[in-house]
Design a protein that fits this description.
Number of strands of chain A: 12
Structural class of chain B: alpha/beta
Strand order of the largest sheet of chain B: 3-2-1-4-5-6
Strand order of the largest sheet of chain A: 3-2-1-4-5-6
Largest sheet of chain B: 6 strands, parallel
Strand content of chain A: 5-15%
Oligomer: heterodimer
Number of strands of chain B: 12
Distance between the termini of chain B: 34 Å
Strand content of chain B: 5-15%
Helix content of chain A: 25-40%
Helix content of chain B: 25-40%
Largest sheet of chain A: 6 strands, parallel
Radius of gyration of chain B: 26 Å
Radius of gyration of chain A: 26 Å
Order of helices and strands of chain B: EHEHEHEHHEHHEHHEEHHHHEHHEEEHH
Structural class of chain A: alpha/beta
Largest interface: A-B, 177 and 167 residues
Distance between the termini of chain A: 62 Å
Order of helices and strands of chain A: EHEHEHEHHEHHEHHEEHHHHEHHEEEHHH
């Protein structure tokens, strides 16, 4: 790559985005925007603290456990932190003043939440006519399901992915709880925001972006829908196998819970694999010589491969196969295995992040590299309300007397109110489903 | 008619696989002119290892709204034309092996010397540098390395990949976001960029993975595969995929605070007073009983009945749907998500649509995936100013050909 730092400015330098978001779809959008150089202000509330799942280092409030959640701090890297109770007039008004000096408002709240705060697109547009607003609920901002509650796992089902996952010999109810739609929505959101900034530069106009997380994920399953259209059949589950590659699977290696993935695309690659396994005669065995033969005899083939692979380490198998151009890769965990990976280390993927409450850790870096922009160094995730005074005082111009009053009124703050949660208990109480405290 | 969002942006695409074509598709779907360069000499490696319907589905989906030009890049004249096209583009998206673009005369150094405002996005399995830069990959092998696979599946069994070509598509999404970011950079600073995208890094930097890595970095907690039906831990009951009368649905009660809603949903609010289920700990302890009560209710209800009832109770849940059911679902019909497009060879089919819509820019009318070389004449005469004789000569020499 050519020399970096030809230009001091990153693409979104000077762009300010307000993020009202929980879990992953919205927060990850904000993280990616900071990688492009935007200033992202994460707007939270001390009445409802979504720094879950709560795994504090300490139960001691002085240690600010809400600021020391590893999951949250990873996905919210590099942002600025503000709390505002948007259900109060002074909170909503402060938000509007902030919107007036911002470019983007980004939210993955459920449909209607921002409108109930009086902060829908039409409201925000009155404050700042060229504001770019994206609301990204599960089912979008129109249509019969727009009010339906959703989370990534739910959208995985509705988008058609759940029925493609899991072990083909087990009921779907054994499917894992890990879900993917949020991530896709986040990437699409960043694309849509950048597109709208580009368009604003040309037309002077703002934009409302309607992103349904379900739909954004379906676009990543395009051929599955078209296969149905072309054949009238729904694709069946594949597990780790593939209808047109064999061997194609995840095989045991030496050690506990160690695995290697191997995917052989062609007969030539199969012959190479036989050489790597030092079983050249296998290449001429009619039971495995051609793809149709290998597909017919997969169980037997998988046994042969497993007997070989389990004598060797997962990286060793990978290297023996990659030397011969056969796709293979070790199954790595997200923790030590990833940190130890020589390729990611060589590419300087990880970053040391110093967090005032959580300490100094090596964390995940940015996904892309841009040759002409200065290297991105990640700052920590913000503490709850950490930058209230800076944002509302220095940026918006609210006097410190008024900010003191807002703090006394619990419109702003830096610690969760007693009983603050993601909303379930309060709502249940309001509906009389559980008794008041 | 107001302009399409990306009107006036031209993209040259030299790609195969899924990630890079999807990145270019994102730009095409929002109005950029995307010119895909393919070889005239042999069938391009269009998903040759896949079955017919999957291969056709990928071709139709990924190449929507694009133009196709064939150029023989083994010949000097083919490479000259490629360079001309690149220098008349705002974006070049390529997925060749690291170094191959230089070999064709369109390396970033060459292009940026003429066009400092050009954005080049290179999408490869492992990136432009590093010890794995020349490694082979498939969805399975790179997914395994990303950290995602280690948590997918059951303990005691081999870890699993997701369904679909998730890592490659996600990388395409990330690449399109970075490309669009770089285009904003061009508008703001006049300086283009070379964007290096790796499928391995994209999937390793996925929020699922970085969140788990954060937990590991802070607490040393490692990720494990868990059995969703027997695992005990905080907040884990009545969560995941369940059978019901006509299929399955996914259910996410979001922990203890939602328990009253679960009881309400199944019409047994008195369960909240049941000594077996009083506290979160009780419910985890007696999870099997709780889930069997839940299951008995589910067995009497269809997916869409559960869907409606759960929404009334305020619980996130959704039916496990087949492609046909999704395309016929009233919600997506009303939103106009799926689009019906006629392709001369494949007929009229329903396609997945746009991941988002814009208030201030119209949706484009989609054009079907082009045949190879379908736009040779339009692009080479219209854009490069070649004459009819030039075109004939190129065709005679096999430098271009219509499929």
């Amino acid at each position: 790559m050519p020399d970096a730092a030809k230009s001091p400015a990153r693409p979104l330098e000077g762009i300010r985005a307000l993020e009202l978001a929980e879990i992953w779809a919205g927060p990850f959008s904000g993280a990616l925007l900071t990688d492009l150089g935007a200033e992202v202000i994460k707007v939270e509330a001390i009445q409802r603290v979504a720094r879950n799942p709560a795994r504090p280092n300490s139960d001691d409030p002085a240690a600010k456990p809400w600021n020391t959640n590893g999951d949250f701090n990873a996905v919210n890297r590099n942002k600025v932190g503000l709390t505002l109770d948007l259900t109060t007039p002074s909170g909503a008004d402060a938000f509007k003043q902030l919107a007036n000096v911002s470019d983007v408002v980004l939210s993955n709240y459920a449909f209607g939440v921002m409108d109930r705060f009086g902060l829908g697109y039409e409201d925000l547009r009155k404050v700042k006519p060229d504001i770019i607003v994206i609301f990204m609920p599960g089912y979008g901002n129109t249509g019969p399901y727009r009010r339906y509650r959703s989370m990534g796992l739910v959208l995985d089902a509705v988008s058609g992915h759940t029925r493609l996952r899991g072990y083909p010999d087990l009921d779907l109810s054994y499917n894992s709880l890990v879900h993917h739609p949020d991530a896709v929505a986040a990437g699409n959101a960043v694309f849509s925001i950048c597109l709208s900034i580009l368009r604003r530069a040309r037309t002077g106009k703002g934009q409302f972006i309607d992103l349904a997380q379900s739909e954004s994920f379906m676009t990543n399953l395009g051929e599955v829908f078209l296969e149905y259209e072309l054949t009238g059949q729904s694709r069946s589950r594949r597990g780790n196998r593939h209808p047109a590659m064999s061997p194609h699977g995840v095989y045991p290696c030496a050690g506990e819970d160690q695995w290697v993935a191997i995917a052989v695309r062609t007969d030539e690659e199969w012959w190479e694999m036989c050489e790597a396994m030092r079983m050249p005669q296998l290449a001429h065995n009619p039971r495995f010589e051609t793809l149709p033969a290998r597909l017919r005899n997969q169980d037997e083939l998988d046994d042969i491969v497993s007997r070989w692979s389990r004598q060797l380490g997962r990286y060793h198998v990978t290297e023996l196969l990659q030397e011969r151009g056969v796709p293979a890769g070790p199954v790595l965990d997200c923790g030590a295995d990833t940190y130890d990976n020589p390729h990611l280390q060589d590419r300087d993927y990880f970053q040391v992040v110093d967090h005032p409450d959580a300490g100094t850790h090596l964390l995940s870096g940015q996904i892309w590299k841009m040759a002409n922009r200065p290297e991105v160094r990640h700052g920590p995730a913000p503490g709850l309300g950490q930058h209230n005074r800076h944002i509302l005082g220095d940026l918006v111009g609210i006097s410190s007397d008024v900010l003191d009053q807002m703090e006394r009124d619990q419109v702003i703050g830096t610690a969760p109110m007693p009983g603050a949660d993601m909303g379930g208990v309060r709502r249940a109480r309001a509906q009389g489903i559980v008794p008041p405290e | 008619m107001p302009q399409l969002a990306l009107d006036g942006i031209r993209v040259l695409e030299l790609t195969d696989g899924i990630a890079a074509p999807f990145c270019a598709k994102m730009l095409a779907d929002y109005g950029a002119e995307v010119i895909r360069v393919e070889s005239p000499r042999h069938t391009p490696r269009r998903y040759e290892h896949l079955n017919w319907a999957e291969s056709a589905g990928l071709y139709l989906h990924l190449n929507l709204n694009k133009k196709s030009v064939t150029l023989d890049l083994e010949l000097d004249r083919g490479r000259e034309l490629l360079l001309d096209l690149a220098l008349r583009s705002d974006v070049v998206i390529e997925s060749m092996r690291p170094g191959a673009a230089e070999g064709l005369g369109i390396g970033y150094e060459t292009l940026s010397a003429h066009r400092p405002d050009l954005v080049m996005t290179s999408v490869t399995p492992f990136g432009q540098t590093g010890p794995y830069r020349d490694w082979s990959f498939t969805e399975l092998s790179v997914f395994a390395m990303s950290g995602a696979m280690n948590r997918e599946g059951l303990p005691g069994r081999p870890p699993l990949r997701y369904g679909g070509e998730i890592a490659q598509y996600f990388t395409g999404v990330v690449a399109s976001a970075a490309t669009m970011g770089a285009l904003v950079g061009v508008a703001m600073t006049g300086i283009g960029d070379w964007v290096d995208i790796s499928i391995f890094e994209s999937m390793s930097g996925h929020p699922n993975q970085i969140a788990r890595r954060g937990a590991y970095a802070y607490l040393g907690e490692n990720d494990k595969r868990v059995d969703p039906r027997t695992t005990s831990g905080s907040e884990q009951y009545a969560i995941g995929t369940f059978r019901c009368a006509d299929g399955h649905f996914n259910f996410l009660p979001l922990g203890p605070r939602m328990w009253p809603y679960v009881a309400q949903l199944i019409g047994q609010p008195e369960l909240t007073q049941d000594p077996r289920f009083l506290t979160p700990e009780d419910r985890i302890e007696n999870r099997a009983e709780l889930e069997s009560i839940f299951q008995a209710w589910l067995d009497g209800h269809t997916r869409y009945e559960v869907f409606a009832a759960a929404q009334d109770a305020g619980l996130p849940s959704g039916p496990v749907l087949e492609p046909s059911e999704i395309m016929e679902d009233e919600h997506f019909i009303q939103r106009g998500y799926f689009q019906t497009i006629d392709h001369p060879d494949f007929g009229t089919l329903r396609y997945p649509g746009l991941p988002f819509t814009l208030s201030d820019a119209p949706k484009s009318e989609s054009t079907p995936a082009p045949k190879r070389g379908q736009h040779n004449r339009e692009v080479l005469t219209g854009l490069l100013g070649l004459s009819d004789e030039d075109i004939s000569a190129l065709s005679d020499r096999g430098i271009i050909s219509d499929a």
